[in-house]
User: Fold this.
Amino acid sequence: MENVETAGHSAAPQGMGRTAGFPTVQPLQGFMGAAVTGLDLSKPLDDSARDAIMNALVEHHILVFPNQNLTKDEQYAYTERFGEVEGHVVRGLDGVKSPQVHMVSNLDLDGNPTKTPATSGNFFWHTDKSYHDIPSLATLLHAKQIPPKGGSTQFANIANAYDELPDVMKDRIQGLRAVHSWEANRDNTFNRPATDEEKAERPPVSHPIVRTHPDSGRKVLYVGIHTSHIEGMPVAEGRELLYRLLDFATQPRFVHTHHWREGELVMWDNRCLMHRATGDFEMDKHARVLHRTVIRGTVPY
Ligand SMILES: [Fe+2]
Assistant:
């Protein structure tokens, strides 16, 4: 963390200078997450600032950048500084495939709030793109419109969850691989079935249930709503075990709730967190709009 200024040091004021500035990192209350200030993310990020942000992400798992105002192109440019930006398999309500800067919202095609948004799978615990053979490293959400009350996002620390598993369960799941798929996601989240085109694009993949975070070296309980069964185990038995592990990992002591403010950009580490949207707001009355980008990760091991 030597590149990161500690809380209390003055940071470059936002909106000044030709580069984004250098981050000041202040841990949030609770057991994980940090606020990152001193940056204007619409401007180019130099290598030292990027490295400091990555170090902070590995240490704190969730980074909250307040008071940003990025266009989609600017969000893309910022995201790209950390790796390859990924598209998404899902089509929008209009049937058009999502671009690399994807809009997460509860709006219908006419732009009105609705109780039945296209992306209701977000309400279930998951890690982004675990149904890819190479799942995502991090996700970035930039809050454009937030309801006056509610609409929060929850994060479960699956590294802490692994640490607290009883040894007998650690022994039982060591070496097991869970099958993840877009088809399972659609089924498990009560959505429309995956289309043949989507299934062809994203066939099932398997990942170790206990993965190792490539930067921190910590072991992680890598489960979530994208799973269907466990390789080499009867389907029903595997599903039951996966749901028990999901229940364990999402106990309140592992969960942090983020209450959004407009203008925030939140970046989180999918290699050690699950997340879900709570949907705890009047969805047919208020708009909730966030712009999402996702950074491609590495093969879990
Ligand atoms: Fe997600």
About this structure: The chain has seven helices and 15 strands. The two ends are 25 Å apart (CA to CA). Confidence is low (pLDDT under 50) at residues 1-13.
